[in-house]
Amino acid sequence: MNGRVPIGVFDSGYGGLTVFRAIRAMMPDYDFIYLGDTARAPYGNRSFDTVHEYTRQCVDWFFRAGCPLVILACNTASAKALRTIQQLDLPLLAPDKRVLGVIRPTAEVIGNYTRTGHIGILGTRGTINSGSYEIELKKFFPGLQIHQMACPMWVPLIENGAYNDEGTDYFIQKYLDELMSENANIDTILLACTHYPILIDRIRKHLPGHINVVSQGSIVAHSLYDYLQRHKEMNARLSRGGSVTVCTTDDPSDFDTHASLFFEQEVRSTQVHL
Ligand code: DGL
Fold first, then answer.
1. Count of CB atoms within 10 A of residue 233's CB?
2. What residues line ligand 1, using a CB cutoff of 6 Å?
3. Which of 155, 169, 192, 218 could form an SS bridge with 123, CB 3.0 to 4.6 Å?
4. Are residues 245 and 260 part of one domain?
5. What number of CA atoms fall less than 13 Å from residue 80's CA on the CB side?
6. Span from the CA of 236 to the centroid of ligand 1 (angstroms)
């Protein structure tokens, strides 16, 4: 990689580009490689074992590409694969490398956004059923009341280009109603899925104005920046050429068509084989 030592950013597909966009805006000097495993996405309804196996293969690909640090910019992979990768795989495969997720950095701060102490979390079935947000949030905000809702229709609607369609409002309303009927005191809703920021304006339209809808891109970006300030040895290993390489495990032209919506700029990807 021409002497480059990039930060790896991983997602099951294009959604992680919403997180990567924020990371890149905050740290434009670093070199990055983004990999979307579009050949096997979405991960949202897959089992723990499958998400772990797919994610581990992608992490291994990043290591072979020379990345000492990989960010799982995917809530489902962070929920279902990160712990096993950190605790079992890394010590055997690559003890000098690091893999970080998006759930812990979000859990560290999201409790500060609520006044009522009631927070809503929206994600894929995999993320919600894993209970990962609850586990992490209890560590940092033990008194917080957590209300969760899986929104399995949102990712397919976005991926099929229906994010602006009227019919999509039905499914936005449906999940928000179900969430809000759990507790009317919810005043903060976290979009715990990389795709959902695409719907943020429409989600806000369906909620009372006092409810704070939070997407996690800038939270994760701040946390990574902070991590590198605290881990100077890792920071020193990373190269600063300001480059961005985007890779996909499936057809690049299809990836690029979708990706610009998430990255808010044109994307030219390359297909890779794991
Ligand atoms: N990137 C996934 C997430 O944040 C959503 C897409 C998928 O299900 O693979 O949970």
1. 8
2. 11-13, 15-16, 41-44, 74-76, 124, 127, 155, 193-195
3. 192
4. yes
5. 27
6. 31
Catalytic residues: 74, 193
Pocket test for ligand 1, best of 35, 58, 75, 255 (most atoms within 8 A of CB): 75
Does any domain span residue 1?
A: no
Mutate to test the pocket of ligand 1, among 11, 129, 198 (most ligand atoms within 8 A of CB): 11
Give how many domains the chain has, as a whole number: 2
pLDDT at 1: 55
Sheet holding 244-248, edge to edge: 98-100, 69-72, 7-11, 32-36, 244-248, 269-271
Position 117 pLDDT exceeds 80:
yes
From the CA of 79, give the closest atom in ligand 1: 10
Select from 177, 199, 215 the last residue of a domain.
215
CA distance linking residue 42 with residue 124, whole number of Å: 10
CATH of the domain at 196: 3.40.50.1860
**Residue 111 and residue 89 share a domain:** no
**How confident is the model at residue 144, as a pLDDT?**
97
Asked if omega into 42 is within 30° of 0 (cis), the reply is: yes
| Residue 41 CA, closest ligand 1 atom number | 9
Residues 132 and 186 in one domain: yes
Q: Do 210 and 187 meet the contact criterion of CB atoms below 8 Å apart?
A: yes
Entry pTM? 0.96
Of 215, 232, 261, the residue that ends a domain is 215
pLDDT at 3: 83
Structural domain for 203, as ranges: 104-215
Residues 130 and 159 in one domain: yes
End-to-end CA distance of the chain: 17
